[in-house]
Design brief:
The complex is a heterodimer of chains A (207) and B (186). Chain A has 207 residues and is mostly helical. Chain A has 2 domains: 93 residues, Orthogonal Bundle (Rna Polymerase Sigma Factor, Chain: A), CATH 1.10.1740; 87 residues, Arc Repressor Mutant, subunit A. Chain A is 67% helix and 0% strand. Chain B is mostly helical. Chain B has one domain. Chain B is rod-shaped, with a radius of gyration of 43 Å. The termini of chain B are far apart. Classes of the chains: A mainly alpha (207), B mainly alpha (186). Chains A and B meet through helix 1, helix 2, helix 5, helix 6 and helix 7 of A and helix 1 and helix 2 of B.
């Protein structure tokens, strides 16, 4: 009987480089999801992403292959953002030290993304059209932010991140059925609110 | 047309996505920041471990020093028990008071004369031997025996202050004949 010999490959380095590449590819989308989870606070979103990467590096968050990597990563981002939000709330009551929460406050006040001159300059359109599009986008974001959290998250994951309803349900930790309900209700509410604001199919934002 | 379709929502979300991607920070900067925080965490953990080890080592050294110093201090105390100035003083008092008591015909207790240690030595030795045997039987280290020895030989350094030549009157049996008070004379 021939003896089998186990070959040990440098799995860790391979895995880590692969993970690094996956995280890098998903970084912009992760940032978009972090933005939504942090109320469109860029500084907070960036800190959340750093905290997520820290979890990945220190082995606190381990991908076990039970779902797709993107779904897993978005779940970690959501959890981390919730943890930070909770800490912030507790720090207001002085129950946890402020240093963890306000580590970014050193670099300056938090920035809230709103379509402004920078986006206008980068839009590549005429200033008038750019301003109009930015206004529509700002209204859209405002109305999206006004939706209940679950509805907002499902809509973001489906429309923004191109996830299926099942994947979205997995990320936010609900059943597919309730995710579908959140999706339908959120869509209806968002549409009606946008129509109230005068944003309709012929508003010209898609041009 | 005052309506909105899913496609319109998709377009708005896509616009939002493009804008967000434009404002997204570079991956490398975030990754490096996280890495440096991991390294910092490890470093602080290592520092904490070193600090804890140092504290434990210091506590151990202090405990050993205290124990050794305690043992050393018991040896002079034992010697002092034999050459105790208090006992010296009491012995002196004994020698000074002895003729007086003999003259008075009083019965002097052996303890007061300072011979008590010598008289008790065989008894103490027997007790020690028995205690040691008991400890050995029970499988114990004969450390408690040393403590017992120390306790039995310890004397207060100010013990001599409690003694006076008048103690003889309290310890001696008075004889009626030698009494200075004569009832018949009255």
């Amino acid at each position: 009987m021939p003896m089998k010999r186990k070959c040990r490959l440098p799995a860790n380095s391979m895995e880590s480089s692969e993970r690094h590449a996956q995280l890098e590819a998903l970084h912009p989308d992760s940032f978009g999801w972090a933005l939504l989870c942090c109320g469109r606070d860029t500084t907070e979103a960036e800190s959340t992403l750093q905290a997520v990467y820290l979890k990945v590096l220190s082995g606190k968050a381990v991908f076990e292959g039970k779902s797709s990597f993107k779904t897993w990563l978005f779940g970690v981002i959501k959890k981390t953002a919730a943890e930070r939000r909770r800490r912030k709330m507790l720090s207001r009551l002085r129950l946890v030290p402020l240093e963890d929460v306000n580590e970014n406050a050193k670099s300056g006040a938090a920035r809230i993304i709103s379509p402004g001159t920078a986006e206008l300059a980068n839009s590549g359109h005429s200033p008038d059209l750019g301003a109009y599009r930015n206004e529509i986008l700002a209204t859209f974001r405002r109305e999206l932010a006004a939706l209940p959290r679950r509805q907002r998250e499902v809509l973001h994951l489906v429309f923004y991140q191109d996830l299926t309803l099942a994947e979205a349900a997995e990320v936010i930790g609900v059943s597919v059925g309730s995710a579908r309900v959140h999706y339908d209700r959120g869509k209806k509410r968002l549409k009606s609110r946008l129509i109230e604001r005068g944003i309709t199919s012929n508003a010209g934002y898609g041009r | 047309m005052q309506d909105m379709e899913d496609k319109d929502l998709e377009i708005l979300f896509r616009e939002s996505r493009v804008n967000d991607h434009r404002s997204a920070p570079r991956f490398d900067s975030d990754w490096d920041a996280a890495r440096s925080r991991v390294a910092l965490g490890r470093k602080t953990w290592f520092n904490y471990a070193i600090a804890a080890a140092c504290i434990i080592a210091i506590v151990l050294v202090v405990a050993v020093v205290v124990r050794v110093a305690g043992r050393r201090s018991t040896i002079p105390q034992q010697n002092a028990g034999r050459q105790n100035p208090a006992r010296g003083a009491s012995d002196l008092m004994d020698t000074q008071s002895a003729p007086a008591t003999e003259e008075a015909g009083a019965v002097v207790t052996p303890e007061f004369t300072g011979n008590s240690e010598r008289n008790l030595e065989p008894i103490v030795a027997g007790v020690k031997k028995r205690a040691r045997r008991q400890h050995l039987k029970q499988g114990q280290y004969p450390a408690p025996y040393e403590d017992r020895e120390l306790l039995s030989t310890w004397r207060s350094p100010t013990e001599f202050l409690l003694r006076s030549p008048a103690d003889v009157l309290l310890r001696a049996v008075p004889s009626i004949q030698d009494s200075m008070v004569r009832i018949d004379d009255r």
